């Protein structure tokens, strides 16, 4: 039978195979006639598999459709889809068992030839790898997924700025962006969480804010303690908009001032302010890196930083560990008396150094 699930636009099929197994799958289409054709073919494939011992073959397109249906709650799904759109011309029309290492190498090289960085190529290949592995390990569509080789990526330093640079930048920004920068540096929140912050998510009496699971990258709720800097910023924006915290002013057709929600913070005004402040190679997301770097340098333990920033694994916060090596001082001191003191052989402030004799 065909039916529709609340979480999917596509028709789904449900039936019992000759050996008594129940099958529930997405047809990958919103067209009922096409869904009926898919159901008939699927039933035939299962019949051949049961009666003749044949394993049904599945296409790359089928795998992508099923993977997308299973990823509807993924925060970065839109980014994944953009990568898949580039891979589609190279893999569309292929059966999964026809996708081998050579085809994957050709896909990666084609993407690289388009002038993108190795990291961008790797993000695409990671999604391709995830689909192929799921086809093997969970869907039983492949005997063995091919190896997907990743390109070398340079390890980039964490980009952060000093308080003096931050003040220079803030001075060059319009009011709404300046306060959003102050708030970001006080909380470490991501751009989307700042631009989309609503008053219903703020409690100034308790000095806390919260990010709901569907707003968080890791799909996990985040509690945000508000320090004095954050509270002062929020108080300045009370009453400007009924729902949103941060808004920008614009005159309507009648010349009346109205406050509108902000969709993107790191746009033209941001880039121009960076140039005037003489700050290079700095993105809006680097405000989060700056917040984390300042926290570590101020002595915040990494486990506390992980909870404050809403990271799901400790590996993410280890990127900042090198900024606060003070906790290793005790161990460095354990061998400091092993050698003869420097002052035993050399005076601290020699008044005169004898010239070397030539010859």
From TrEMBL:
One of its GO terms (biological process) is DNA integration. Keywords: DNA integration, DNA recombination, DNA-binding. It holds the Pfam family Phage_integrase. GO terms for molecular function: DNA binding. Residues 58-136 form the Core-binding (CB) domain. InterPro entries: CB, DNA_brk_join_enz, Integrase-like_cat_sf, Integrase_catalytic, Integrase_recombinase_N, Tyrosine_recombinase_XerCD. Residues 156-333 form the Tyr recombinase domain. PANTHER family: PHAGE INTEGRASE-RELATED, PROPHAGE INTEGRASE INTD-RELATED. Belongs to the 'phage' integrase family. This is Site-specific integrase. It comes from Thiorhodococcus minor. The lineage of its organism: Bacteria, Pseudomonadati, Pseudomonadota, Gammaproteobacteria, Chromatiales.
